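User: Quick sanity check before I run a bigger batch. Here is a single chain. Can you write out its predicted 3D structure?
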Amino acid sequence: MNILENFGIDTENEHIYEVAFTHASYSTNHGLNYTYERLEFLGDSVLNVVVSEYLFKKYPDFEEGKLTKLRANYVCQNALIYYANELGLKNHIRLISSGDVNLTKNEIISITADVVESFIGAMFVDKGLEFAKDFIAKNIFKYIDEEKVFFTDYKSTIKEYCDANDLQIDYEILKEFGVPHDKTFIVAILLDGEEFGVGKGKNKKEGEQAASKVALERLNIGV
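Assistant: Done. Predicted structure follows.
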């Protein structure tokens, strides 16, 4: 695999990297008994702990809550998609989206994010923690250092506002539609029972974030 040469990975277990890029649709189509999901699970944990450690050392005066918000920015789906494109990982994904398997745009976006974590998981299994940490340090820490923004937590901002002004905040799902694996949620945000915004997302949390952004704009709070 050319991608292994790109990242200086000298391995006797090339197969595990093939697994890291194999989506269930490809496995089903080719009669394989593996997908990237287990490696994704592992890589997610490795990425979180390595980024957490870096932030912990970089910002010794930050409290837990601020560190948690900051970490979310660098391990969220938007960030992972950006990494997948910048590192060329997206080009190696093995999936099938035709015939009986019709993957939606949202599913392909999610898969693109997933393979960053599964690739890290493969490195961890094959080369160990220090190698995986070195990969993350070389390819992700630079975005932390330049304070690149991938995700804004509108929900936390509106909650802080409501706490400070003694307002009750609630979210209400107005509508949901689509097939089970590709739904769209329409969500309203209510402040003391009054609707302040409506947002749309491919899951409840994304809809709540979108609604919170609308509410902040209505309240003329910088977002």
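The domain at 2-145 is CATH 1.10.1520.10 (Ribonuclease iii, N-terminal Endonuclease Domain; Chain A).

User: Great, the batch can go ahead then.
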